[in-house]
Amino acid sequence: MDKFIVEGGKPLHGEVSISGAKNAALPVLAAALLASGTSTFHNVPDLVDIKTIRKLLCNMGAEIDGDGTVSVNAGNITGQEAPYDLVKTMRASILVLGPLVARFGVARVSLPGGCAIGARPVNLHIKALQDMGAQVELNGGYVEARAKRLKGAEIYFDISTVTGTENIMMAAALAEGVTVLHNAAREPEIVNLAEFLNAMGAQVSGAGTDLITIRGVTSLRPAEATIIPDRIEAGTFMIAAGMTGGEIDIRGCNHSHLEALITKLRDTGMKITPLADGLKAACGEKINSVDIKTLPYPGFPTDLQAQMMAYMTIGSGLAVISETVFENRFMHVSELMRMGADIVIQGGSAIVRGVPALRAAQTMATDLRASASLLLAALVAHGTTEISRVYHIDRGYQGIEKKFSALGAAIRRMKQ
Ligand code: UD1
C-alpha cells in the first residue's frame, strides 16, 4: 500500500492537463457490450477503476487492447457474470447489468453492498428493468436478471441516479418499443454515453435533460467515442490554486461543465478566466467563506464537496456545507480536524469555521474524494503530512502526485 508524504506551504503555479473522466469512461466502456465487434475509445484515463472495468469485461470474454485509445471487441462474449471480487472494489460494475440483459437476455451481477459514503442501493436500476419486463431475482448476493427481449416503458426515477439513468438508457437502446426516462440524471457523462449509443445506431434523445426518450432498435454496431474531460479532476486543481495562493492554467477542461463550482470559487474571491482550451484559476486576496449545498447536476457536485470543505477550513469566516446526495459523506471531517480544522457536523451539514492555518498530521484516506481533500489540506498545512491508503485516490485521479509536483508541490509517493 502506498502513502503520500506532502510538505505544505508551496503556492502552485503553472499548467496542468486534465485527463478523461472516469465517470464517463466507465459507462461508455460498458456500452461496448451492446454490439458484436470492436468499439474504439479515445482519451480513456489510466486509473485503477478503468483497470477494474477492463478486467470485468475480459472476464466475460471481451478482448481489450491499448492505453489512452482503447479498443474493446465484444464479438465473443462467453459469460454474463460480474463476480463479487470485482464488484466489491468498484460499485460502478453494476453498469454491465443493463447492456448484458439487453443483448443476451441474461445477466448475473453481484450486488455492490455498502461503501464508505453510505448504503448506495441499486433498487432503482432493478425496478426500472422490472418495469421493462425483466424477471429479477436476488440469489446468493447476486442480481439475476432475465428477459427474452426488454420492452420499452415509462420509467419514473424517485431519485436522480447517474448510473441508474445510464444503465437503463443502455438497456432501452435494444428494447422493443419506446422507453421514456422521467427525472433522469442530467450529468455531462450521460450526454457522452448517449452520443456513443447514437453512434452505435441507437435512437436516444433528450440526454442532458431530465426527460430522455429511447426508441429501441434490434441491433447496434460497434462505434467510436471520445471521453469528455474529468470535471472533478479539473475542479480539484482549481480549488488547489485558490487554497495555496497560486495560479494554474487548467488545460483541456470544459468550462460549461463547471459552472456551479466557478460561481462558488468566484464568491470565495478567486479569479477564474476562460482560456481557449480550458481556464485559468487564480487565488484571491483573501478566502471568503461560502456556503455549499450538493445537488445533482447542474447543482454543486457531491464529488467536489470534500475538496471544497478542505478549502473552507482556511476561509475567513463560517461556511455551511450541506450534503444532500449521499447520507454519509463526511468521512474526511475527522481527518481534517486532526489537521486543526474547526468543523461541527449537524445532521446533513458541516459547519466549518475557518482557522488561520492547518497543521501537518498523519492521516488516512477513506474514499476517493475524501483522499483528494486530505491532499489539498496537506498542500497548505504547516509541516509534513503523511496520507496513507492512497489507493483510494488512484481509483480516480491519473498521476495525481506527478501533476501536483509539476505545479511546484512537494509530494512523494512511498511504499508503506
Ligand atoms: C455516480 C458517480 C459518483 C457520484 C454520484 C453522484 C459514477 C461511476 N459515479 O454514482 O462519482 O458521486 O453519481 O453524483 O458515475 N440511489 C438509490 N437507489 C438507486 C440508485 C441510487 O437510492 O438504485 C441513491 C444513492 O444512494 C444516492 C443517490 O441516489 O443517495 C444518487 O446516487 P447515484 O446518482 O445513483 O450515484 P452513482 O450513480 O452510484
Can you offer a commentary on this structure?
By secondary structure, the protein is α/β, with parallel strands linked by helices. It folds into two domains: 2-19 and 229-415, Enolpyruvate transferase domain (UDP-n-acetylglucosamine1-carboxyvinyl-transferase, Chain, Alpha-beta prism), CATH 3.65.10.10; 22-226, UDP-n-acetylglucosamine1-carboxyvinyl-transferase, Chain (Alpha-beta prism). Helix content is 31%, strand content 25%. It is built from 14 helices and 24 strands. It has helices spanning 22-31, 48-59, 84-87, 97-104, 123-131, 162-173, 188-199, 231-244, 259-267, 305-312, 331-338, 368-380, 391-394, 400-406, and strands at residues 2-7, 13-17, 38-42, 63-65, 70-73, 81-82, 106-110, 135-139, 142-146, 154-156, 178-182, 203-205, 211-215, 224-226, 247-251, 271-275, 278-282, 292-293, 318-322, 342-346, 349-353, 362-364, 384-388, 410-415. A four-stranded mixed beta sheet has the order 22-23-1-24, with helices on one face. A four-stranded mixed beta sheet has the order 2-15-17-16. It has a four-stranded mixed beta sheet with strand order 4-5-3-14. Helix 10 (305-312) links the parallel strand 18 and strand 19. It is elongated. The termini are close together. The mean pLDDT is 96. Residues 23, 26, 91-92, 118, 120-125, 159, 161-164, 185, 302-303, 325-326 line the site of uridine-diphosphate-N-acetylglucosamine.
